[in-house]
């Protein structure tokens, strides 16, 4: 269902799009979003969630890959996001030099930092481990936990 007849040009798609309100999977990310606002291309039946369409640029600097600029591209088959591990459907930001891909969700919502410094409560910097592992909680609960954790390095 169209919410307006205004044509919008977005770097995420080659044709003009119209603001649209529809409960459908986004062609931008292959996922359903809790909000249904977005942009729709009538020429090729292409729907983009508002969060993916607004503020999207052809190139970005991302904190998870600060060495190079990432470019907005159509994902290659069988590619996965280097941050969340989910299969990328549609568009992603990519560094061709490093073969590094970030889906639009992770590009819009960067993951937590890999190193944190909370000197008020801990005397050393803590590093986030890439892979989940089991550990005993050092806080007051003492439970066994399976998670990504920050460890003193």
Can you put this structure into words, describing what you see?
This protein has helices at residues 50-53, 104-108, and strands at 18-21, 37-41, 46-49, 59-62, 65-74, 91-95, 100-103, 115-116, 126-128, 133-136, 144-147, 150-152. The protein has 153 residues and is mainly beta. It has three domains: 1-56; 59-108, no CATH class; 115-152, no CATH class. A hairpin with a 4-residue loop joins strand 2 and strand 3.
- Record field, number of beta strands: 12
Give start-end ranges of low-pLDDT stretches: none
What number is the mean pLDDT? 77
Q: How are the strands of the largest sheet arranged?
A: 4-5-6-7
What is the helical fraction, as a range of percent?
under 10%
Radius of gyration: 19 Å
Order of helices and strands: EEEHEEEEHEEEEE
> What oligomeric arrangement do these chains adopt?
single chain
Tally the helices: 2
Strand content: 25-35%
Largest sheet entry? 4 strands, antiparallel
- Total domains: 3
N-end to C-end Cα span: 53 Å
Name the overall outline.
elongated
Organism: Microthlaspi erraticum
InterPro entries: C1-like_sf (IPR046349), DC1 (IPR004146)
Domain DC1: 63-107
Keywords: Repeat
Write a concise synopsis of the structure shown.
The protein has two helices and twelve strands, in the order βββαββββαβββββ. By secondary structure, it is mainly beta.
């Amino acid at each position: 269902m169209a919410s307006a007849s205004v044509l919008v040009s977005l770097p995420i798609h080659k044709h003009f799009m119209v603001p649209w309100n529809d409960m459908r999977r986004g062609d931008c990310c292959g996922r359903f979003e809790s909000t249904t606002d977005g942009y729709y291309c009538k020429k090729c039946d292409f729907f983009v969630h508002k969060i993916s369409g607004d503020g999207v640029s052809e190139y970005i600097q991302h904190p998870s890959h600060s060495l190079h600029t990432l470019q907005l591209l159509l994902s290659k088959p069988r590619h996965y996001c280097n941050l969340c591990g989910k299969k990328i459907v549609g568009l992603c930001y990519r560094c061709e030099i490093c073969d590094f891909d970030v889906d639009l969700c992770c590009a819009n919502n960067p993951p937590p930092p890999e190193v944190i410094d909370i000197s008020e409560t801990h005397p050393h910097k803590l590093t986030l481990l890439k892979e989940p592992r089991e550990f005993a909680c050092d806080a007051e609960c003492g439970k066994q936990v399976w998670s990504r954790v920050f460890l003193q390095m």
